[in-house]
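Feature request disguised as a bug report, sorry. It would help if multi-protein outputs had a clear separator. Right now it looks like this:
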Amino acid sequence: SLSTIDNLKVIVRMTDMPESMQTFAFETVKEAKRRISSNTTSTSTTNGNCGIQDLAKRIKLEFDKTYQGNWHCIVGSDFGSFITHETNNMIFFYIGREAFLIWKTA
């Protein structure tokens, strides 16, 4: 399903997550970005990247808390990956030019 966050299209490139988990991913990213942008003292915000390390960490921790297990999150605009994940627990999507890869391992 096509969504928007902050007037930017969400483009899902690959997923095997149920739709409810996908929605959780989009809402978690939106909330994490809002919290980081309102935190003007963030020390990891560099080059206008909205603190991508903080962003990835917040997303990972929310998935850990909500869905338990070993969740991982990569946020960026230029990266490659090869991962192994639990079935029904992976999503790779873009919001604007920013990519998000979220997955769970055993």
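(second protein starts here, but nothing in the output says so)
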Amino acid sequence: AQLGNFNKISGAVNYDINDVCDDEFQVPVHNQRIDLLNENNEIIGTTYSNEDGNYNITIPSGPGLISVKIADTSEPFEPSCFPSQSTTFFTSDSLLSINNVDFALR
């Protein structure tokens, strides 16, 4: 069990079959690496999407600029539709759960 206060970022990684984001033609991508970066763009954590394409990362609470970035993908996949990186600022007293930080590959 984790002790202390934590923020959480979660989302999904999908393969976009028809280049139309956020529709029923999305296939989950499992085992895709997602990196957590600090304000200096240094990797401070890593997770992988599960069999349903979902992921979540817990971050110790405290101030800071945190980015979630889809790691480099193997060809022929590349990020599409959504940005390849999402950035959130956490304040010292925040205990947040940021959901739907989604990525699509094509």
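Even a blank line would do. Unrelated, but nice: The first strand starts at residue 6 and ends at 16.
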